[in-house]
Amino acid sequence: MNIKLNYWLIFRRTDMFSIQSLIENIRQKISLQMVNSFEVEIIISRVTGISRASIKARIEQHIDATHAQQIIKLCQQRAEGVPIAYLFNEREFWGLSLYVDERVLIPRHETELIIEYCLEKYALDSLVRCIDLGTGSGAIALALAKNFSKWEITAVDQSKSALVVAKNNANNLQIDNVQFIQSSWFQQVEQKQFDLIISNPPYIAENDQHLQKGDLRYEPYQALAAKHNGLKALQEIILSSPHYLVLGGMLILEHGYDQGDAVQQLLKEQGFSSILTHQDYASLDRYTTAIR
Ligand SMILES: C[S@@+](CC[C@H](N)C(=O)[O-])C[C@H]1O[C@@H](n2cnc3c(N)ncnc32)[C@H](O)[C@@H]1O
Fold this sequence. Notes:
two-stranded antiparallel sheet, elongated, alpha/beta, 10 helices, Helicase, Ruva Protein, domain 3, Rossmann fold, 13 strands
C-alpha cells in the first residue's frame, strides 16, 4: 500500500496556526487508522519541542507555518506507512538513544528482556567474552557494553550498512568495549572462546503475511525473514555455537512466539543443557537460554 496525500494547504511563511486547528486539519485529511492520535502528538511534540503530556493543555498555542508544514509532511509520511522511529531516526533501547534508519531493524522493547536477564545472571564487574550475532543497530551489544564495562563484546552482522549504523551508535554513545566484524554468523570471527553468545536473528517465515504489513514493510528484509519456516538462522547459530562457546557458557536466542519447542529441540540435539524458554510481556514465548 502506498498512499500519496498531495492535497495539503500551501502555507505563507507568516501564517500561524493553533495546535487545535492543525490537528483538525490533519484529521480531515488522514483517518485515525493511518495515523493515530498518539502518533500525531508525538510528531507535534518532536517538531515543536512541546512535551507530549502538555499538548492538550496548550492546544490554543500558535505555531508558525514552517513547523506546521513539517508536522503535516511527517503525518503524511506516517500515513504512507513509514515507522515513527525512521521518521525521527531515533529509537530508545534500554535507556540508550540509538540512531536508526532503513538499514537496520528497529529494536523492539521485548528484546530488552534479554538485557534484563543478563543483568540478573551476571555481576556488573564480571569479565565476560560475549558475541552478539546479527547486531543491526547495535542495540543488544551496546546496551550490554554500557552496563558491563569490563565485558569484551564482539558484534557481527552480515550487512555492511547495518554495521555503519551500529558503529556510529557506539561512537555517539562513547562506547569502546565493542568490536564490530562483518561476518555471516561466525564465519569471519577468529576468536573461538566466548562465555556468552546472544542473537536476535531473523526468524519470520518468508511467506508470513506480516512482512507485507505495518512497520515491517520498511525494515530490511534480511533482518526479518529466514528460510525453513523462519528457523534457518536459528538452526545455523545453534549448530555452530558449541564450537565457539566454553563449557558452561550460555547461549541466548530470541525467536518467534511459536518457535520455542523447535528451538528447544535443536538445542537438545546439540547437547545443550538447562534449556529454558522465557515469555515476554504478553506471556508469549520470546527467547530461550541454554548452557553448553
Ligand atoms: C532481527 S535483526 C536484529 C537486530 C538487533 N540485534 C536487534 O535486536 O534489534 C537480525 C540481524 O541479523 C542480521 N543477519 C541476517 N543474516 C545474517 C547472517 N547470516 N550473519 C550475520 N548477520 C545476519 C541482519 O542484517 C539483522 O541486522
